[in-house]
Structures
1.
Amino acid sequence: MALILDNEAAGGGAAGAPADVVKDVDTQSFVTDVIETSMNTPVIVDFWAPWCGPCKQLTPMLEKLVRQAAGAVRLAKVNIDENQALAGQLRVQSVPTVYAFVGGQPVDAFVGAQPESQIKVFIGRLTGGAPSPVDEMLDHAREVLAGGDSQGAAQLYSQVLNEDPVNAAAIAGLVRCFIALGEIDAARQMIDGLEPDVAAKEDVRAAASAVELAGQGSDTGDIGGLRAQVAADADDHQARYDLAVALYGAGQAEAAIEELLEMVRRDRTWNEEAARKQLLKVFDSLGTSDPLTVASRKRLSSILFS
């Protein structure tokens, strides 16, 4: 089954954010674009300079998160080299400096580059803590995928990526949609095409592990036949290993873990600890905070150190 991603249907943005939520503002337009606009919508003012290294990291992040907010907040960018008087009026002594205006008045601020998580908190204070439309769409996509509609989930993840092409959660989700649809090669190509910093994010690494395991599952035998082999000889480690791989490939992660744990109990050194290593790959694919991972890691430790 081919996965169809309709970029036109996605509307070019995850939540239809207005095109003018990010503006370059100068002294002449400050009253209109910041003071007056903030009477109805919070405005974040980013004071920056072309020579400022941290600004080159912070400004794109602000733009991305403001666009994800889909109109709930706006961004005004002020080049201090071209607007020194305005920067002086607001006592900007270094860049980047960021102010938040509400009701025509500055209500919050920070100086220096900040991690994305802190900027989300900053924006959350301005929007009353409401989740961004992108976050809501990601939550919806997860529910749709968990409900078995991989195609529908893929469309939602694609809409998020139209707005934020390096959104780790959306990339990982789309990869898992490819896997669920049997498009293992497409999933692998997507992972292989990522920049190193994106590929290193936890969600994406977990999805990459899932791709590797799914690829293994296509090379094993029939689950019923493998079960019969294990039932006939409980110490047929190769058959049990192949059964675990096939189970994971069929979406039965918990059953796969049970077989691998049983292998570790029976002979942890078989094939250079293949069962333990496979378990670690499964844990990576599920994610470190997944309840099944947490519980199964404890069981593995109990077996290894008993």
Note: Strands lie at 22-24, 43-48, 74-79, 97-102, 105-111.
2.
Amino acid sequence: MLLIAHRGSSGTAPENTLAAFRQALRDRADMIELDVRLSADGEPVVIHDRRLYRTTGVRGNVREWAVTELEELNAGARFGRAYAGERIPRLATVLQTLPPTIGLNMEAKTDGDRRRAGLMVERLGGLLRSTAGRRDILVSSFDHAFLRQFHRRFPDVTIGVLYYAVRDFGRSPARLARRAGGTVFICSRAQVRTRWIQMAHAENISVLVYGVKSVRQMIALRNRRVDGVITDYPARLRRALHPRA
């Protein structure tokens, strides 16, 4: 079972910052999940929300700020004084900073951005060319139309479809994944069903589950043959999964 650090080790460091990603390395996560949006000038930056306020205390939308302006914002102080120097990182900086031994699950965020999804395809795909063959990369999104475009343009990159219940109810994981060119299906702990896991595996689709916070939840999912869990606390889960390591 893969242990994937949600926005880095976001339970113990400010989410989607270099501090959280370095902590995930120390926690021996197998992969890091992070979120990607585009700045006003089209630079891929690592932040979850479309609005800046929750993590930086500044009002405004990510898509309205140039990358140099975003880099000046404090993305760590709200988590704790020790992280007051943390910034919103460029994706390029993350790729340059993290060793290629750690895999990355990049969730592309296109909501609230009126620009064509094609811009995200080109900017994200262009950056990933530099890592081709050197790092395990998964590109995921709730925007399945974006994923289809990305897969057509960059067919060698692994694609993961995120399940959105209101839209995707009644569709099988394999159908959702295949339509987007994906080989990975991702849903929340509350949404996952054993029959989905079985159906996905029958079609060689891997299943990842997010929102996993406790050892008990992880063990239950492992017993159901889930391929990986996305957690804020990878160190806690790793100690339980590999107690002698």
Note: The chain is about 35% helix and 20% strand.
3.
Amino acid sequence: MARIRAGLSEGRANLVDYSQCNGPRKSTEPQLFACLVLKASVGFDYRGLQGLLDDSADLCQLIGLESVTHFSNFQTAFRRLLGNSLVQSPLDKTVSRALDAGRRARGD
């Protein structure tokens, strides 16, 4: 849960809410960033991420998602986000902190 909160925080600090003026507004860039952090930290593919979110109302609520998008939409959004140099550094830092926290909690 902490990694998702960190992802939302980093996303809000570094991204605008919507990348397109007239596009659909189902999820914000910070919400997608939090999903990207979750995907990277648990090691799921896009379908796995969609399944995880479909099965976890708590995660969706934490991220603020009213509905879970199709995995191909995650793939397109993540490709766009990862192509943005402003996103890569916060993503690396957030995922690294989340993985380090997980290792410390397990005693690795």
Note: Residues 2-106 form one domain.
4.
Amino acid sequence: MKKDILVIKLGGQFVLNNAWISSFMKALTNLLEKGYLVVIVHGGGPQADDMQKKLGIPVKKINGRRITDKDTLMVVKMIYKGTINTELVTEALKHQIPAIGLSGIDAKLALVSRRPKKKITNQKTGNTETVDFCYVGDIETINKDLLVYLLEKNYVPIIACLGVDQNGQIYNINADSLATAIACKIKANKLIFITNVNGVQKTNGSSQYFHKLKLDEAKNMIAKKKITDGMIPKIENVETAIKNGIKKVQIVGAFHKKDQWLEAFINQSYGTVIYGGNYE
């Protein structure tokens, strides 16, 4: 495939906003007309949190990462693939986009292994804890052949963040990690995280954001607790992407106007662009 490939991760907060989704799909139509190939990966954290609360299932997280026990796994299967994926594919079809809904389970798209217990320093308490993430999977392999086949046929895969192990056990996967693994495997030209903030904040709670940020600077901000919560796994995945040959990774908020989306995707005019070496 010689066309430029974009891997775009949609955060759960983004999916809650119908106006954002509609404008995004209009821009996606234009991207496809310009010859881009696009893979979409989505999360659904806020929706899963909401459903867990409704069902009386405790929400447990550490440093922005969800602990997925048996009851939580039931919820994420229902929300990620059952609700969000179906609705995103339907919205794409309304815009004449040839979308196909998948999760990492389909054809072992994301083959995973259970995450081992880990000693983690809790950023909120400062204490080191041994954490069992339960049914959270770490990605072993990505089924590149399936994605290449779909892209060559001009389909737009929309992928929910679930995975499966060799024994058929289903696992929750961090959506940023899944998008990163896919981007690395298919050698995407761009990896873009769309989130509920406009980029990496210069200070906690600030309305000002970095437009360009070196990876080392971002990691230093984590160490100094200037980057917290859900932004931490994003930066960890940015590091993985850059080490695997993706020169720049973009973290960007959402837009109501199609032209702003296109400027963000094509020219990286908005959000924070994190890079390893020299910024081009």
Note: The first strand starts at residue 5 and ends at 10.
